[in-house]
């Protein structure tokens, strides 16, 4: 039985390269859909669910981490691999916290992605070796000295979506249109973000979004 995969990356050339690798090296893995952003992934998942979702972490409109969160709300059995050029701890920890079962760096994707897909399909975890090393290190540090909950943990899902779009340079009107919200509601979310994070300038919100792994811009 083949493993059905939905592949998401905002660069078509990356998707083409991954598809070529999978088709050439493993006939049992079949890409049933491709998407350029998280919103498209959710539409595909509703129409034709996949066995495994391979998501770029830095997609526009809805990043890979937030998409993972939505997929698992739609279907808790969804299996997600994050594919990323980032091996920063903030990105990895957010992805795992939202329910991703795999995290593969793009520089090693050709060698690791097929194995990652097979492992995650078996309901196991797969992390690229450099990532698994510092994830274990972080776990050991937390056992020794439990950290306080970061401010970002207080944000709602909608606030995280608004924060990502702010970081991507969308105006309030564009955010309202993108998320099907009123302009006043967007203003409320922006004010709540500033209050909760104690950040009162847009440049600060952008820096925070990048550091928290919500955006790579």
Major β-sheet annotation: 6 strands, parallel
> Stretches where pLDDT falls below 50 for ≥5 residues?
146-150
Q: Give the beta-strand count.
A: 6
Helix count from the secondary structure assignment: 10
Mean pLDDT over the full residue set? 86
Q: How many whole angstroms does the radius of gyration measure? A: 18 Å
Strand content range: 5-15%
Strand order of the largest sheet: 2-1-3-4-5-6
Total domain count: 2
| Second rung of CATH, namely the architecture of the largest domain | 3-Layer(aba) Sandwich
CATH fold-level topology of the largest domain = Rossmann fold
Gross morphology is: globular
SS-based class: alpha/beta
The separation of the N and C termini measures 40 Å
Name the CATH homologous superfamily of the largest domain.
Response regulator
Q: What is the succession of H and E elements?
A: EHEHEHEHEHEHHHHH
Helix content: 40-55%
What is the highest CATH level, the class of the largest domain?
Answer: Alpha Beta
Structure description:
- With 217 residues, this protein is α/β, with parallel strands linked by helices.
- The protein folds into two domains: 140 residues, Response regulator (Rossmann fold), CATH 3.40.50.2300; 61 residues, Arc Repressor Mutant, subunit A.
- 54% of the residues lie in helices and 13% in strands.
- It has ten helices and six strands; from the N terminus they run E-H-E-H-E-H-E-H-E-H-E-H-H-H-H-H.
- It has a six-stranded parallel beta sheet, with helices on both faces.
- Strand 4, helix 4 and strand 5 form a beta-alpha-beta unit.
- Helix 2 runs parallel beside helix 3.
- The protein is globular.
- About 2% of the residues have low confidence.
